[in-house]
Amino acid sequence: MAWDEWEQVKAQVAERHTARLQLNGLPGEGGHADPSGGGGGAGTLRHKGGPWTKAAGTADGLQTSTITAKVDLRKAHDGISSGLAGLSSLGALKSVLTSWDERLGRVREECSSLEPKLRQVAVDFAEVDAGVAERTKAVVVPGTRRGE
Fold it and tell me: How far apart are CA 42 and CA 142, in angstroms?
């Protein structure tokens, strides 16, 4: 292909793609959305709440497991005070117990805070998706069954 032909092809492609649909759903600077779909996708934007709901379930599970871990940790330290009385390691062991007890408590609190928020994200996205789907029904796209 000669250089002039290549430049002509590039100019034609640029001409066809000057006005594209922007992510905010408004027409591009040229005034109209690209009727060909331009993005190469299937043309249908979908959201699933599954990942958010799954993350919320994980946070909920972590709340339970941290409570169980704290109980198990305390049980493991029962009776140690009498068995290690007078040893310097008793102080270190108690310090470790206190430290882990506090850490597990903070993890449980964080998960307790996150779990309902993650569930709400799934609900909110589903509502937004439904609203966007309803508004897009009004868009007439040439070359499609609805728009012809």
Answer: 16
Is the pLDDT at 92 greater than 70? The verdict is: yes
Within 10 Å of residue 122's Cβ, how many Cβ atoms?
Answer: 19
The token pair that represents 147 in the structure block: 């728009």
Q: What is the pTM of this model?
A: 0.50
Contact 76, 100 (CB under 8 A): no
3-state SS string for the chain: CCHHHHHHHHHHHHHHCCCCCCCCCCCCCCCCCCCCCCCCCCCCCCCCCHHHHHHHHHHHHHHHHHHHHHHHHHHHHCCHHHHCCCCHHHHHHHHHHHHHHHHHHHHHHHHHHHHHHHHHHHHHHHHHHHHHHHHHCCCCCCCCCCCC
Q: Please tell me the total number of residues recorded for the chain in this structure.
A: 148
Residues 70-82: tens digit of each pLDDT: 999 888 878 777 7
Q: What share of the chain in percent tops pLDDT 90?
A: 25
Q: Would you say 142 and 148 are in contact if contact means Cβ atoms under 8 Å apart?
A: yes
